[in-house]
Design a protein that fits this description.
- There is one protein chain.
- With 65 residues, the chain is of the alpha+beta class.
- The protein has a single domain, classed as Factor Xa Inhibitor.
- Helix content is 34%, strand content 15%.
- It contains 3 helices and 3 strands.
- The protein has helices at residues 8-13, 38-43, 52-61; strands at 14-16, 22-25, 47-49.
Length: 65
Amino acid sequence: MPKMKTKSGAKKRFRLTASGKVRRNQANKRHGMIKRTNKQIRNQRGTTIAADSDAKVIKKFLPYG
């Protein structure tokens, strides 16, 4: 049986935690910061856990996690 290929776009954007959840970068942080509140900018630092419905699809692209 051949090895499955990982989607190269997914491996750059997502990582799996030790418990199997999908970690992703925060959205809405690329541009337009001047119209966002300081609270929004502060709360969007770092990474977050993807929703379960999204994680189910993302895990198909990362067969070896």
